[in-house]
Amino acid sequence: MHENSFLSHDVIIAGAGPVGLFLACELALQRVSVLVLEQAKTADAPLKRLPFGLRGLSTASLEALYRRGLLEALVAAQRASNVSSDVTQAAHWQHQSRRPAGHFAGIQFFRDRVDESHWPAPLPGLPDRTMAVTLEVLEAVLAGRAEALGVEIRRGATVDGYLASNHEVGVCAGPERFRAAWLVGCDGGRSAVRKIGGFRFEGTAPEFTGYSVEIDLADGNVLAAGRHLTSAGMYTFTPPSTIAMVEFDGGASHRKAPIAREHVEAVLRRISGADVRLTRLQRATTWTDRACQAAVYRKGRVLLAGDAAHVHSPLGGQGLNLGLGDALNLGWKLAAAVRGDAAAGLVDSYEAERYPVAARVLAWSRAQVALMRPDAGAHALRGVLQDLMETRDGATYFAERVSGISLRYETDGLHPLIGKTMPDVGLAPSGAVDERLNEGKGVLLDFGPDRRLEALARRWTGRVLYAAAKSARCPALRVLLVRPDGIVAFASDDAVALDPIADALSRWFGTPEGEARGR
Question: Domain FAD-binding: where (predicted)?
Fold first, then answer.
């Protein structure tokens, strides 16, 4: 325990989905005591398995998992559960003659048109720039790591009230009461933490109801496999039984009543225009394109992350990656606040950096919905976009957006690396950054070497690690400061001047060890 010996935990997280579990891992890595409260009584859920639970991890997410030593475990868990081979069968986009790079509003773009020549080199530990995974496997790996780090996960515990003061948060979960220094809502789009706290949730109302269903068809040949935009909406068919479809009804059918076979059959007929007959409805869920964002991510000692902070349609599959990015950004900052060595404004920088990222994703989602509308204008625009995506510049632009490669936090730094994820710059020794980031600390890379930098790093002992290295790809580099989340905080190709580096260290890592601190 850090701030108050009477608290039950340093941080309470509501929600044991991927975002809440990854945040718990990040905090526990920094020796922060964490309690995760999850409404569901068990981690097992059909919607987390194939086919509905299939998700895509972006380059940014893969780098984060790799640098925390989680990617190898994730790949191994997929192999052990036979998910790797099943993913290929479940993903309709894998069954194409050209290798897909993603889609926008259902319009596919392909890797053979993407120019990766100016992209940062991928980290050597990544199997690819993207990876398909099921929520079931991802959550199991994250939960296992969290519990190994000492995180307590309580399932069947619903947050139904809390009271926050300037020093702590009292949380009610049924008959149980807990006290912590901080509360983080990672409890999804209908977040109890957000609603109880009165966080304004602003955005746009839904235009459609989306359906994900498993069915038995009387005749499987009446529907063509793949994704199809029609005059009534869109449907995707992965034989023999999986369909995702969208009907522009203003979201009228979302969560209104139990989904009946007859209703699904009627909707599928309208959208596909085919004489479809369902003999059985195995499983079904609905969703919409509602796009909303919390006006603020923090109220005192209560914060929001993931879908609790922002929701949008699952089109393009960016929601999971957006939430994991929230957790990666927030974890080390909140841990510093718990320890008492956070620089002024460090926790608030979470919202400052992540809010614009989510706003861009919501705009991206709304643009896709506009292109999918069943009208002549949208149809014409889709044709223009399809032509654009077949060009090298067009495909590259869309690939950069969906992969996370184009992410850069706003910064006043002049060096092009500042604000971006630390790329593979051909370090020798090769693990100079990644092995140290496994510990969740910052890294000061000295390309001189310059022993003054080593002495400077020692002033932040326990928070920043020093490493001397050489760069094969960026030989002009003289110094790099990398945050615990892998973001470059300072970089210079010029002769080393200590004052700017010390300023960056103070900004991100607080007052040096042994010097007077202010809370």
Answer: 10-364
CATH topology of domain 420-509: Glutaredoxin (3.40.30)
- 176-185 and 302-304: which strand pairing? parallel
Who's near 342: CB < 8 A, 6+ residues apart? Answer: 333, 336, 510
The tally of CA atoms less than 13 A away on the side-chain side of residue 280 is 6
Q: What is the CA radius of gyration of the chain?
A: 24
| 370 CB-contact burial (10 Å; exposed 0-12 / middle 13-18 / buried 19+) | middle
d(CA 102, CA 109): 6
Residue pair 315/368 in contact (Cβ under 8 Å)? The answer is yes
Contact 227/245 with Cβ under 8 angstroms?
no
The token pair at 420 is 């971006």
Q: Return the H-helix or E-strand segment holding 474.
A: none
* Residue in the block written with tokens 């304004």: 200
The class of domain 7-98+132-203+292-371 in CATH terms is alpha beta
Q: According to the model, what pLDDT value does residue 518 have?
A: 44
What does 60-72 look like in DSSP terms, one character per residue? HHHHHHHHTT-HH
What is the rounded CA–CA span in Å between residue 230 and residue 217? 20
Residue 13 in tokens: 């997280």
Instruction: Please report which helix (H) or strand (E) contains residue 181, including its range.
Output: strand 176-185
Strand ranges in 368-436 using DSSP code E only, listed in sequence order: 427-428
CA dist list (Å): 330 to 57, 138, 172, 177: 19, 20, 24, 25
What spatial distance separates the first Cα and last Cα of the chain, rounded to whole Å?
17
Give the Cα separation of 1 and 162 in Å (integer). 20
Is the separation of the CB atoms in 64 and 485 below 8 Å?
Answer: yes
pLDDT at position 181? 98
Q: Where are the domains of the chain?
A: 7-98+132-203+292-371, 209-288, 420-509
Query: What ranges in 238-318 are assigned the alpha helix state H?
Result: 261-272
Nearest to residue 229, comparing CAs of 55, 382, 54? Answer: 382
SS percent in the chain: helix, strand, coil, step 5:
35, 25, 40
For 487-510, write each residue's pLDDT tens digit.
999 999 998 899 999 999 999 999
- Contact present, 493 and 414 (Cβ < 8 Å): no
* Dihedral sign from CA coordinates of 37, 38, 44, 47: negative
Q: Is the pLDDT of residue 65 over 50?
A: yes
Q: Fold for 209-288, please state it.
A: Alpha-Beta Plaits (3.30.70)
The answer to whether the beta carbons of residues 104 and 97 sit under 8 Å apart is no
Pairwise CA distance, residues 166 & 99, whole Å:
53
pTM above 0.85, yes or no: yes
The bridge status of strand 427-428 relative to strand 470-471 is: antiparallel
Single-letter code of the amino acid located at 340? G
pLDDT in tens, 232-261: 999 999 999 999 999 999 999 998 788 999
